[in-house]
Amino acid sequence: MKGFPEGFLWGGATAANQYEGAWNEGGKGISTADVITSGSHTVPRRLTYKNVKTGETGSISAFGPNTKIPEDCIPAVIEGEYYPSHVATDFYHRYKEDIGYMAEMGFKTFRLSINWTRIFPNGDDEEPNEEGLKFYDAVFDECLKYGIEPLVTLSHYETPLNLTIKYGGWSNRKCIDFFERYAKTVFKRYSGKVKYWLTFNEINIMEFAPFIAGGLADPSPQNRAQAAHNQFVASAKAVKAAHEINPEMKVGQMLAYQPSYAYTCDPDDQLLVMELSKNTLFYADVQTGGKYPAYRLKKYEREGIVLDTEPEDFELLEKYPADFLSFSCYGSSTFTTHKDVDQGNGNFVFGVKNPYLETNEWGWATDKNCLRIALNTLYERYHKPLWIVENGIGWDDKKEEDGSIHDSYRIDYLRKNISSMRDAVNLDGVELMGYTMWGCIDLVSAGTGEMKKRYGFVYVDRDDKGNGTLERTKKDSFYWYKKVIETNGADLE
Ligand code: BG6
């Protein structure tokens, strides 16, 4: 079987707040992720806050479009609550060991995020924190030692909390300047070490979870639209700055994308899918395509949303679109206008149950064609190089008495998915830069805060309450993926 083109970037992906821990070490400030507790697929994660006048504390659901910080309250770490990001799986102290595992599997790339608050603890600081900069120097040097190319996300659901408290989050245009300062600082510092960058992880999540995506204190539709606009402008400025600092650098967009299917051939279902898809594609139309699409401007007009813009915004968007389009894709979603259909119960997953697909414990469906469909759809629309930066399956892995972990379900899932993307490349001619499997070393789930929703090739001994030694153990999939990389995707057996 034909594998992938030479130079294909195989690897794995992580995010600082789910992986690093050391939440208050090395001069790091507090991020929005650090005030979110753990949950499960039925109990939502909570955002904790305290009332600045009375000192009373409380919490609200952190996910969803309606997370609004109550009046006189600020998000805060509350004693006695458990926050999974605080220790996570301790990459901060174990990066050498972990990068060693990645090298052993033959990784060509490693996707990680810089925790913005390690560099600018409050987001609006004038000067960066040298200790934070040094940490990532050490991480990148360790990667390069093994020939692993870092792929760095600048903001992965970890906005400096101070930007929420002081400015209301990304709905405030001041965040554009703070982000630009941060981006320029790391571009200059790591020029020559990091070639590939992403600006905002799953930028379209602004639509569904504005506190997570943009640290919004008030999630009104007006604020969400403004926050998205501000992130678009910030991304364009980052592209401009990166190209000026080092023309070798490439800055990509990162979109949460999965194919959407109509449950029936009822034209109303088809129209529904078309409409819902726009809520995702809009974000790529602007950031990768360079222009606001007419359908979105009409929607804003209907809803009375008026964006606060500067005259140069639109020129920037057009002149500095993303160099490539990366996306996460775990499966597919199915939608219908019919009410008598099993609604399914996935966390962070939308739509109804697809009777043709099997789901995991969290309701996420394995779809053997989703990557080929996603890659074709996005390539046809944008004609830009693509990069799958998240794909994988969460599973409550069991460690046997002899210490082995037999995750055949993960191998099966990955085999189907990699085969699907191989067809997109070899049969359809899609230009694909790389593939980074999500959560290559076990880390905290973003959606639930659990540890038991594991994705990794390497198991980490830690449970949902924060117990465990953090010791690492290779799973069966570790050896399988090593062979996939060795054969450049030709051998998936
Ligand atoms: C993506 C996020 O939405 O999905 C990751 O970018 C996240 O941060 C991943 O971890 C998987 O979701 P979950 O909820 O299973 O962790």
UniProtKB/TrEMBL annotation:
Pfam families: Glyco_hydro_1. Keywords: Glycosidase, Hydrolase. One of its GO terms (biological process) is carbohydrate catabolic process. InterPro entries: GH (IPR017853), GH_1_N_CS (IPR033132), Glyco_hydro_1 (IPR001360). Gene3D superfamilies: Glycosidases (3.20.20.80). GO terms for cellular component: cytosol. GO terms for molecular function: beta-glucosidase activity. PROSITE patterns: GLYCOSYL_HYDROL_F1_2. Belongs to the glycosyl hydrolase 1 family. This is 6-phospho-beta-glucosidase. It comes from Clostridium isatidis. The lineage of its organism: Bacteria, Bacillati, Bacillota, Clostridia, Eubacteriales.
